[in-house]
Amino acid sequence: MPLISTNENGIYCAQGDFYIDPWRPVNKALITHAHADHARWGNKKYLCHRYTEPVMRHRLGADIVVETVDYNQEIIINGVKISFHPAGHVIGSSQIRLEYKGEIWVITGDYKLYDDGMSTPYEPVKCHHFITESTFGLPIYQFESPLKVFKEIEEWWKENQAKDLNTIVMCYSLGKAQSILNSIDKEIGPIYVHPAVYNINQAFEKVGFHFEALPIFQETDKNQIKNSLIICPPATDGSAWQKKLGPARKSFCSGWMQVRGARRRRGVDKGFVFSDHCDFKSLNEAIKNCEAENIYVTHGYELQFTKWVNEELGLYGQVLHTLFNENEEE
Question: Is the whole-model pTM more than 0.85?
Answer without folding.
Answer: yes
